[in-house]
């Protein structure tokens, strides 16, 4: 389990709790989402994460169409007992083979929350990960055509079968979370949450998580790398980087959004730390029952992310950041239209 220098929180459901680190690792970028990746380097990063106590690992079956889970499975060898493993299902896709080829978007068949599909999806994930149990199994996107009660009931069967320990939802509405929780306790809700994506504060999701004692997992806590201050123009994005599709990274929007980084840079200079550490520390300070899962492919950045837990922001600094964020108009939606349409906004 995690080494003591990373703050841990109690995670789970009534009657079944474990301690997990508040700073985890999002693995999506380890298989090429933000440009070409080298497997040996990605495996080295996973080994370093385990050594550093960054042992809450998040993947998904759809990342690189199954390849990300296979990579994480290799990274788990010899350290499965130390890693809290989270994966996700819900995007039905065609897994590449010698007979299939084509663009990533062409391989996605749509969102599927049908019980029969869930049974197939979990077995496929277990096989790719080469494990006999998943610690946290999350519905990646809510299927608007299948009642959440049916989906969660099928997920609950996986708990009874011993294939899954805890259940979670991603990008769900507060109403969907309440309905799901009535079927089976939900351990976590995963949504984007950072200085330029604060939807969870205004749509009732964070309030509902507090009420039900559900852990909130903040993905992209650094705004897909934008809030680190390392990127200075849209031209910094490499060929094959999925962020080239995102509205906030488009030329014009990108430059306009740089002003959002300024407050983190100013405080980082005062505190003698990195901009990304201040941005992460700010997210961690917003909610006690919250985990961040920043992604990186470099060990030096992973070490910086882990060390962000030691950055303590004063109430004055937190208020300064909040006032600044509230004063800035973010340019562009957080997803392209096709991906934005998959977010659950049901009442």
Q: What's the helix count?
A: 14
| Topology, number of strands | 12
Distance between the termini: 39 Å
The H/E string reads EEEHEHEEHEHEHEHEHHEHHHEHHH
> How is the CATH topology named?
TIM Barrel
Q: Average pLDDT, to the nearest integer?
A: 93
Question: Any overview of this molecule?
Answer:
The chain is of the alpha/beta class and 347 residues long. It has one domain: Alpha-Beta Barrel (TIM Barrel). It is 37% helix and 16% strand. The strands form 3 sheets. It has an 8-stranded parallel sheet with strand order 3-4-5-8-9-10-11-12. A two-stranded antiparallel ribbon has the order 1-2. Helix 5 (148-160) links the parallel strand 8 and strand 9 (164-170). Helix 1 (39-52) packs across helix 2, helix 5 crosses helix 6 and helix 10 (262-271) packs across helix 11 (275-285). The longest helix is centred in the middle third of the chain and has 15 residues, at 115-129. The model is unreliable at 98-102 (pLDDT under 50).
């Amino acid at each position: 389990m995690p080494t003591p220098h990373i703050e841990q929180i109690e995670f789970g459901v009534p009657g079944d709790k474990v301690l997990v680190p508040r700073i985890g690792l999002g693995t999506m970028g380890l298989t090429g989402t933000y440009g070409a990746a080298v497997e040996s380097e990605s495996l080295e990063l996973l080994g370093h994460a385990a050594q550093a106590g960054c042992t809450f690992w998040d993947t998904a079956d759809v990342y690189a169409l199954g390849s990300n889970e296979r990579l994480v499975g290799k990274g788990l060898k010899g350290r499965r007992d130390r890693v809290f493993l989270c994966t996700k299902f819900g995007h039905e896709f065609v897994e590449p083979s010698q007979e299939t080829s084509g663009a990533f978007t062409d391989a996605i068949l749509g969102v599927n929350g049908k019980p029969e599909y869930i049974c197939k999806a979990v077995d496929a994930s277990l096989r790719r990960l080469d494990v006999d149990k998943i610690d946290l199994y999350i519905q990646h996107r809510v299927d608007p055509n299948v009642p959440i009660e049916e989906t969660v009931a099928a997920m609950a069967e996986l708990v009874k079968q011993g294939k899954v320990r805890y259940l979670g939802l991603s990008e769900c509405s507060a109403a969907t979370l309440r309905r799901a929780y009535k079927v089976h306790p939900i351990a976590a809700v995963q949504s984007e949450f950072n200085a330029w994506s604060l939807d969870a504060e205004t749509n009732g999701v964070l309030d509902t998580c507090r009420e039900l004692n559900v852990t909130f997992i903040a993905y992209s806590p650094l705004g897909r790398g934008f809030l680190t201050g390392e990127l200075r123009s849209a031209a910094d994005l490499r060929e094959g980087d999925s962020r080239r599709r995102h509205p906030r990274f488009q030329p014009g929007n990108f430059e306009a959004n740089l002003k959002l980084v300024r407050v983190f840079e100013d405080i980082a200079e005062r505190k003698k730390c990195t901009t990304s550490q201040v941005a992460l520390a700010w997210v961690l300070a917003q909610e006690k029952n919250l985990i961040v899962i920043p992604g990186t492919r470099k060990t030096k950045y992973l070490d910086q992310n882990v060390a962000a837990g030691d950055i303590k922001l004063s109430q004055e600094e937190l208020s300064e950041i909040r006032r600044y964020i509230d004063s800035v108009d973010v340019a562009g939606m957080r997803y392209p239209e096709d991906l934005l349409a998959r977010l659950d906004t049901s009442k």
